[in-house]
């Protein structure tokens, strides 16, 4: 349940609690809140637990340089930390940041791990039940793992053949295509969730976590079947906010474990990563001739430059160039 917001008392005098309250009032995603609080805490600990009000931009530059030089962090990690500290000082404390001077992390462009179509078929043959359906959805739609596990039954629209992603990365909503071949499997999964929900109601449970203020706005929605998770956990757990026993969505480690086994059994010599099915979705669409703007929209990328990384891994040889060796007449060894 690590994606359920912790309860924070707005009157708490604790510095990090006040930071959390400020972030929530500004409407940032919960993942962003967790990330920013993590890096602010690291920043404070690095400077021997001094209060940020007692530090200046020199301490900020020192910490950013430390991450680059001593910790060899990635460019993205350093950039995320910078964003967290800029938010801390500029927006929370009202201190102007100005131009910062620090050692930049080295930029390493790493190409995404992409499975071939044959490898995906091989992996799927070693998956069963709900885990197979989850992988089929990630490859068939480009969903991130967190987006997949956060799906509610109401997000599957068989009438328009759409899947609605609510509060994806950057707290953005989007719609994606529903693979027609998965309609029957999804309908079976929904029926299984309905049976499970009926059992929960009979046993005195049946409520599900609702984000933000929806619980107050729609007090009965938490028991409605449409709000139940498409991939519920096998066990009922205690909500850390309210203490109520609820059935949350499946934990991501369950899928990761099954995926590692399937990749190993399929003898695929690439890392077993759920995100690789999203990479494969985008790469294979490019190979099939779809334009990059369409793929950008389906993936939910804010900048097309993020999507363009897939142009470097399409199955057309290096940059679409055919090797001259392939043009040689067959020769004996």
Structure description:
The chain has 333 residues and is mainly alpha-helical. It has two domains: 15-92, Orthogonal Bundle (DNA polymerase, domain 1), CATH 1.10.150; 111-317, Intergrase catalytic core (hpI Integrase, Chain A, Orthogonal Bundle), CATH 1.10.443.10. It contains 13 helices and five strands. It has helices at residues 15-25, 30-46, 57-69, 75-92, 117-124, 129-141, 145-149, 183-202, 214-217, 252-265, 275-287, 292-299, 304-307; strands at 156-157, 162-165, 174-177, 237-238, 245-246. It has a three-stranded antiparallel beta sheet with strand order 1-2-3. A two-stranded antiparallel sheet has the order 4-5. Strand 4 and strand 5 form a beta hairpin. Helix 1 runs antiparallel to helix 2 (30-46), helix 3 (57-69) runs antiparallel to helix 4 and helix 6 packs across helix 11. The radius of gyration is 23 Å and the shape is globular.
CATH superfamily of the largest domain: Intergrase catalytic core
DSSP summary: helix tally? 13
Largest sheet: 3 strands, antiparallel
Mean pLDDT across the residues is 88
- Pairing-aware structural class of the strands and helices? mainly alpha
Oligomer: single chain
Q: How far apart are the termini?
A: 61 Å
How many β-strand stretches? 5
CATH-level-2 architecture of the largest domain: Orthogonal Bundle
How would the global form be characterised? globular
CATH class of the largest domain: Mainly Alpha
- Count structural domains: 2
Rg? 23 Å
Task: Please estimate the helix content.
Answer: 40-55%
The CATH topology of the largest domain: hpI Integrase, Chain A
């Amino acid at each position: 349940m690590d994606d359920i917001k912790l309860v924070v008392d707005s009157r708490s005098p604790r510095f990090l609690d006040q930071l959390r309250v400020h972030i929530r009032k500004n409407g940032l995603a919960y993942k962003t809140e967790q990330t920013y609080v993590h890096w602010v805490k690291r920043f404070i600990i690095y400077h021997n637990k001094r209060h940020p009000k007692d530090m200046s931009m020199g301490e900020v530059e020192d910490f950013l340089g430390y991450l680059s030089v001593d910790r060899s962090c990635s460019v993205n990690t350093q950039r995320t930390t910078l964003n967290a500290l800029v938010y801390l000082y500029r927006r929370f404390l009202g201190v102007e940041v100005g131009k910062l001077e620090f050692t930049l992390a080295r930029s390493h462009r790493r190409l995404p791990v992409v499975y071939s179509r044959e490898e995906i078929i091989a992996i799927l043959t070693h998956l069963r039940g709900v885990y197979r359906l989850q992988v089929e959805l990630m490859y068939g739609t480009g969903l991130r793992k967190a987006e997949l596990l956060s799906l509610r039954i109401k997000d599957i629209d068989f009438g328009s053949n759409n899947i609605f992603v609510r509060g994806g990365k950057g707290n953005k909503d989007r719609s994606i295509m529903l693979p027609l071949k998965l309609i029957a499997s999804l309908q079976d999964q929904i029926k299984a969730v309905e049976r499970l929900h009926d059992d929960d109601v009979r046993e005195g449970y049946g409520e599900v976590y609702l984000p933000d203020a929806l619980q107050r706005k729609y007090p009965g929605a938490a028991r409605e079947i449409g709000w139940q998770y498409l991939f519920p956990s096998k066990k009922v757990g205690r909500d850390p906010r309210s203490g109520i026993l609820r059935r949350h969505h499946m934990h991501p480690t369950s899928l990761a474990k099954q995926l590692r086994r399937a990749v190993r059994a399929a003898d695929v010599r690439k890392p077993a990563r759920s995100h690789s099915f999203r990479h494969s979705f985008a790469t294979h669409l490019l190979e099939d001739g779809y334009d990059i703007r369409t793929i950008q929209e389906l993936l939910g990328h804010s900048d097309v430059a993020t999507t363009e990384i897939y142009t470097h891994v399409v199955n057309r040889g290096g940059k679409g160039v055919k090797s001259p060796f392939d043009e040689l007449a067959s020769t004996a060894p």
